[in-house]
Structures are given as C-alpha cells and as structure tokens.
Amino acid sequence: MACSTVSMKLLIDSESKRVLFAEASKETVDFLFYILSLPVATVIRLLRKQGMAGSLENLYASVENLNESYIQPNQTKETLLKPSLPVGISSVPLLLMNNTTTGTNYYTCNQSGRYNSNRVSDVPSTICRKCRRRKNTAVPYVAPPGKQESAEGGFVKRLVTYMIMDNLVVNPISTISSITLLNKFNIKDVVNLQEMEVTLGMEEAVKLLKASLQSEKVLTDVFLNCK
C-alpha cells in the first residue's frame, strides 16, 4: 500500500531566501516523475480547489454537467472525468486519488458467475454492447514476463539519494555535484546555508503540481514563499 507522505531535505540560502536544491529519496522522485503520466482530467480535478485559471476547467465542468441523455449508451462520464492511471502508478505515494482507478484492472460483464463477453473495458460501469449490462467485474491485469513490476515498485531504483533542483531538474546526488552547485550559485559563506526537512503530503503535493505549471522556482514558491 502506498504511503500518504514523503519527505525531502531542502538546502536553503538564507541570504537570498531561495532553495538551492533538495535531497530526496526514491519515493519522492517517483512521485515527481509520475506527475508526467497523470491524465489531464486528473490534474484539473486536483487543481480545482486551488483556484485553477483557464478554460480546461470549463471543459471539465461541461462534461460533469452534461445530461446523461446526450451521452452515447456505451459511454460514461467517468471515462473522461476519472480516467485510469497508468499501470504501476499504484505503488507511488500521493497519486492514488479518491475515485481514480488504476490501469491494473480491466472490467467485463458477469452473469451467474461467468464472464458474459470476450470484450473488456478499463473503465468500470461501461455498457456492454452484447448484453447491455454494465462491466463491473474486475479482470486482473497480468504483465508480460519482461514487464513485471519490481518488488520495490515505482520508477527509479533505490541506489542513491537524488538531488532535486528548485526548477525540478532531478539527478543522482554526489559530493562533487553538491560542491559544483555551491560554486555555481556563488555561495561564499556556508554560514548562510540552512537545512530544512519538509513533508510532502496531499496538500503540499497539489501546491507543488500547481507551481510546476507556473514557475521555474517551484520548491522556493511552495515551501518558502507559501504561495
């Protein structure tokens, strides 16, 4: 089961009031990388409470408010509003939103304990074209031999600690890379450097997602400027 929070250590320049970079674990990096695979509808649903601007929210609301009589009989609103997440995302913390299905299951119709169709859907409650019943019986997905999930799951390996830059550039961390960055940021006095450990729960995750669409200094905006 995915945990509900992850954490990372921020290295802060107190003089310029900015985050230089963060040290992060595999779990935190998995979360950031899997943002790229989130369906647009899922992103909109997460950002609605954050006062998301733009017309995509209106498009989402149009589907949400559309009367069922205008929708094809073999379609449901959930197909667009609550799309399935990619296979493997179930092992990533923070991304298992309520009412969002994962791609590890497919669904078929069922009658008297038997599958009633050789066609499946990755969206529950889809109407079967053959028997007109809803496909609500889960059929487990089995990945081919070369694509089996590892025991630890996620996307990256637990080999090293990772470095996350303020603009979300991610790389494996090393002593040399840390020193190089301090020189790049023209840090003359290490006394001005502060370390702060932060927890990334669902609320912070949504703020980070919003900031990543608007800013080049995401960590600073989310954890120092509190935007």
Structure in words:
The protein has helices at residues 26-34, 40-47, 56-65, 78-81, 175-184, 202-212, 218-223; strands at 6-13, 18-24, 105-108, 110-111, 114-115, 126-127, 134-135, 137-140, 162-165, 170-172, 193-200. The chain is of the alpha+beta class. The longest helix is centred in the last third of the chain and has 11 residues, at 202-212. The two termini are 31 Å apart. The model is unreliable at 96-103 (pLDDT under 50).
Short summary of the structure?
Helices cover 26% and strands 20% of the residues. It has 227 residues and is α+β, with helices and mostly antiparallel strands.
Shape: elongated
- The chain-level structural class is alpha+beta
**Helix content, binned percent:** 25-40%
Q: Give the count of helical stretches.
A: 7
Average pLDDT reading? 80
Count the E strands: 11
Q: Name the strands of the widest sheet in spatial order.
A: 10-9-2-1-11
C-alpha-based Rg, rounded: 22 Å
Topology as a string of helices (H) and strands (E): EEHHHHEEEEEEEEHEHH
Largest sheet: 5 strands, antiparallel
- Could you tell me how far the N terminus lies from the C terminus, measured between alpha carbons in angstroms? 31 Å
Estimate what percentage of residues fall within beta strands. Answer: 15-25%
Q: What low-confidence regions span 5 or more consecutive residues with pLDDT below 50? A: 96-103
